[in-house]
Design goal:
Blueprint lengths: L3 H13 L5 H15 L6 E6 L3 H15 L3 E6 L8 H12 L4 E3 L3 H9 L3 E5 L11 H11 L4 E5 L21 E5 L4 H5 L1 H4 L1 E5 L10
Length: 209
């Protein structure tokens, strides 16, 4: 198991030392999550933040669309603050004429959830270090109370990757698809993560910075 900081160093080394573009790492993460996840449902909701965890979600949603699944997308953050790789995946979906919705309020969120069979949580990843705002606590609560299957990408939104303690609140996932290696917080916060599957980002699992 590794810490948040160790994973960040591995990502950095893959990009700088191995010279793998970050968007390639993101695409690998999405493809391997797709192949590892159950695909027995037809309607998926991608809840995406605007950082790289959200970019993973958009790329995963594209994989689901390409395999004839019905996918809706709801972006929860401020697009003007998006990461470069998130924007890359957003533009791909827009060029595919995929409808992308922006979070308005909890009522609107619940409407999206009601129409889905599975909620894909890609709001915040392992980089989260501060407590969730009231807005995101409301989102977490709505997802947790929905009764839908929830799959989290890398780590459930709100869970500290090192301590496994919720930062004001945490998604309770049925399954978590974590990248490269299990994070310490996934073990410590077992009640929030469900079944954990490790997904490759395209480098050997024993690769260390």
């Amino acid at each position: 198991m590794i810490t948040r900081e160790e994973m960040q160093a591995i990502d950095r080394s893959a990009i700088e030392d191995l010279e793998i573009p970050s968007i390639v790492l993101m695409e690998n993460a999405a493809i391997n999550t797709f192949y590892n996840m159950p695909k027995d449902e037809d309607n998926y909701l991608i809840l995406a933040g605007v950082g790289n965890n959200g970019g993973d979600g958009l790329a995963l949603g594209r994989q689901l669309l390409n395999n004839n699944k019905k996918v809706s997308f709801l972006i929860t953050g401020d697009i003007t603050k998006s990461s470069t790789d998130f924007l890359c995946n957003l533009k791909i979906l827009q060029k595919m004429n995929v409808k992308i919705d922006i979070y308005k309020n909890v009522k609107d969120l619940k409407s999206h959830i009601d129409k889905s069979s599975v909620v894909i949580d890609s709001i915040f990843g392992t980089g989260l270090i501060r407590p969730l705002s009231e807005k995101y606590i409301g989102i977490v609560k709505a997802v947790n109370e929905s009764g839908k299957k929830v799959y989290s990408i890398d780590i459930p939104t709100g869970l500290d990757a090192n301590t496994g303690i919720p930062l004001g609140g945490s998604i309770k996932a049925n399954r978590t698809f974590t990248m490269h290696e299990v994070k310490i917080g996934l073990d410590k916060g077992r009640e929030y993560v469900g079944e954990v599957t490790v997904c490759s980002i395209g480098i050997h699992r024993n690769y260390k910075k």
